[in-house]
Write a structure and sequence with these properties.
Blueprint lengths: L2 E6 L7 H16 L3 E6 L5 H12 L6 H28 L4 E4 L6 E3 L8 E4 L2 H8 L3 E4 L3 E3 L5 E3 L5 H11 L4 E6 L20 E3 H9 L7 H10 L3 E5 L8 H4 L4 E4 L13 E5 L2 E10 L4 H11 L4 E6 L6 E9 L3 H16 L3 E5 L2 E7 L9 H11 L6 E5 L2 E7 L3 H11 L6
Parallel strand pairs: 1-2, 1-9, 2-6, 3-6, 9-11, 10-12
Antiparallel strand pairs: 4-5, 7-8, 11-12, 13-18, 14-16, 14-17, 15-16, 18-20, 19-20
Helix pairs in contact: 1-3, 2-3, 5-7, 6-7, 9-10, 11-12
The chain binds adenosine-5'-diphosphate (ADP), aspartic acid and magnesium ion.
The site of aspartic acid has 13 residues, from helix 5.
């Protein structure tokens, strides 16, 4: 008998019929002898609906008080769906109980709308499991040290599930979603994308951080830190397929490189439209510039991604970087207010119509010429590269947003991912 965590995403929870399917699937696993913890997301569209209502009432508030209420609001989506799963489980003839994050409790810090899990007390859940119940725990939420409800950022139910699996030392965490695994790239953009049967943890970490929203990045970080066996699979397969067959389907995130397999140099392509580019022009080219610009940005708790400093001319240089699009206006305002006057720089300009496309693969460590192949494929499509950033197992380029799908398709073909 093993302890297994199932997580079901929004589409998998999308209607009473789908919730019934979730309950039937979980019941099948429970009857196969497993102790089951289920982490549901809000029903599809519900989180957007709730946040949309808040926006109608107060479009652009950025205060802690406002963010606290957003969490209070958004957390209700998962609370409703957890109760519905428990009800459906009971209808399947199993004993089941649901808990909101604060009842477990899942303890987080106080960063409303993007809180981090700090600890999970599993006593209550374990007692229910030992009493033979299927336990449902809300995804996406927790409680801060002052007793406020927090949420973990969009897509955060993945992280809830993995964190619970880690805390309870579950045998495996299964992420059920609307695709049957992790693909070489988003199958909605490239229909020829292929499902990967395994993907190394490091590659998954890069894919997630570079924009593949199939798993929230923090869930992958948790899985890595606590070595949680993690699998992504479909909730749309027939519910009555054999448990053993289901248990090996989808994509397994592995912690060791499979030496027997000839690894592709590039395993996947990720992309994101979530960033914006900001340039500070005419900065005096003296030591400490990067610190003076980015220090202020970091101080404001804004994450910076790709950075370039151009060649200097007449002692002046241009300094560009990308931030999340949500932080764009705040960053521009901050630079105008605090950095321009101090540095004597000329101007701050920005571009929100950009996208970042990345190739990811462990094989890049031991192969040369991978980046140049990427640049050639893009140039053959006439796509201009605005920024480049590389690390051991990825190369990213920033391009015009309008070319993102063309770029992803061209790279998918150039690296022969459709033939995997
Ligand atoms: P859920 O609601 O189940 O959490 P998400 O929408 O968050 O589902 O994640 C699943 C979606 O991720 C898929 O429908 C797919 O469009 C997208 N996706 C992006 N990149 C990939 C990839 N490399 N492999 C599989 N799916 C991907
Ligand atoms: N419901 C939340 C969201 O839409 C969390 C999740 O689905 O993972 O972001
Ligand atoms: Mg998701």
């Amino acid at each position: 008998m093993a302890l297994i965590v199932h997580k079901y995403g929004g589409t998998s929870m999308g209607s009473p019929e789908r919730i019934k399917n979730v309950a039937k699937r979980v019941a099948k696993w429970a009857r196969a002898g497993h102790q089951m913890v289920v982490v549901p997301s809000a029903m599809s569209g519900e989180t957007n609906r709730l946040l949309g209502l808040a926006k109608e009432l107060a479009p652009s508030r950025v205060s802690t008080a406002y963010h606290r209420e957003l969490d209070m609001l958004a957390a209700t989506g998962e609370q409703a769906s957890s109760a519905l799963v428990a009800i459906a489980m009971q209808a399947e003839g199993l004993e089941s109980v649901s808990y909101a994050g604060w009842q477990v409790p899942v303890r987080t810090d106080s960063s409303f709308t993007k809180a981090r899990i700090e600890s999970i007390d599993d006593k209550r859940v374990r007692a229910d499991l030992d009493a033979g119940k299927v336990v449902i725990v809300t995804g996406f939420q927790g409680i801060d040290p002052d007793g406020n409800i927090t949420t973990l950022g969009r897509g955060g139910s993945d992280t809830s599930a993995v964190a619970i699996a880690a805390a309870m030392k579950a045998a495996e965490c299964l992420i059920y979603t609307d695709v049957d695994g992790v693909y070489t790239t988003d199958p909605r953009v490239v229909p020829e994308a292929k499902r990967l049967t395994t993907l190394s943890f490091e590659e998954m970490l890069e894919m997630a951080s570079l924009g593949s929203k199939v798993l929230q990045i923090r869930s992958v970080e948790f899985a890595g830190k606590y070595k949680v066996p993690l699998r992504v699979l479909s909730s749309f397969t027939p519910v009555d397929i054999d448990v053993n067959e289901e248990a090996v389907s989808g994509t397994l995130i592995t912690f060791e490189e499979d030496e027997k397999m000839e690894k592709a140099v590039v395993s996947g392509i990720a992309f994101t439209r979530d960033e914006a580019k900001i340039s500070v022009l005419g900065v005096p080219d003296t030591p400490g510039i990067a610190y003076q610009i980015l220090g202020e940005v970091a101080e404001a708790n804004i994450d910076v991604d790709v950075i370039i400093q151009n060649l200097s001319k007449d002692g002046k240089t241009d300094f560009s970087f990308t931030v999340n699009r949500n932080d764009y206006q705040r960053t521009i305002d901050l630079l105008k207010d605090k950095v321009l006057p101090k540095l004597g720089a000329q101007e701050v300009v920005g571009d929100t119509k950009i996208a970042k496309v990345s190739i990811v693969g462990i094989g890049m460590r031991s192969h040369v010429g991978v980046a140049s192949k990427m640049f050639r494929a893009l140039s053959e499509e006439g796509i201009n590269i605005k920024m480049i950033s590389t690390s051991e197992i990825k190369t990213s380029v920033v391009i015009d947003e309008k070319y993102v799908e063309l770029a992803v398709r061209a790279l998918h073909k150039a690296f022969e991912l459709d033939q995997a």
